[in-house]
Amino acid sequence: MTSDFKQPAFLQTVTAPTSAEVGTATHLVLQELSLTQPITLAAIDQQIQTLVADQVMAEPIAAQIDREHVLRLFDTELGQAIVAHGTRTQRETPFSLLLPAHQVFEDLHDEQAKILIHGIIDGYFEDEDGITLFDYKTDHVAPGESGIAKIKDRYSGQLNLYAQALSDMTGKPVVRKYLFLLATGEAVAM
Questions:
Q1: Which of these, 10, 73, 107, 174, has the minimum number of CB atoms within 10 Å of its CB?
Q2: What's 182's DSSP letter?
Q3: pLDDT given at position 141
């Protein structure tokens, strides 16, 4: 069987990868990394090399992935919880959510208007308390509390939509939401 689909542009031969391309590739590594084996720099390197060998990722992009940043995730309490729930951790989960448009756009007053939102949730797992939702961010973070506050403000709406979608899909409450800031190695509770 042959595929009629071209390889995505960000995975083709690249000489100077953009930060968006490196961010997308980093997300791919986090999606594919086995959670049932110890997560080490060697395991991360192996996963990246497999993606390159399978022509899923271009070598120049792979070379730019900060392996230490990926490893730091799994040194955090959040990362350890992700691994502890390894086989139950869901990653890259697509969703669709139909909302009244006035909930998304404050200046829209048409009660009948709806908006369809599609997205992909980086990850979540369920335990006895409910669902823990997490989202990886490769953004640069300014030092100090103001940098964290800006990131939280920028992504709070996104995580709230993800939480609503997960709750609707599973019928269970989202009890914890985190941003994992790869640039700083911090898991930020939202």
A1: 107
A2: T
A3: 82
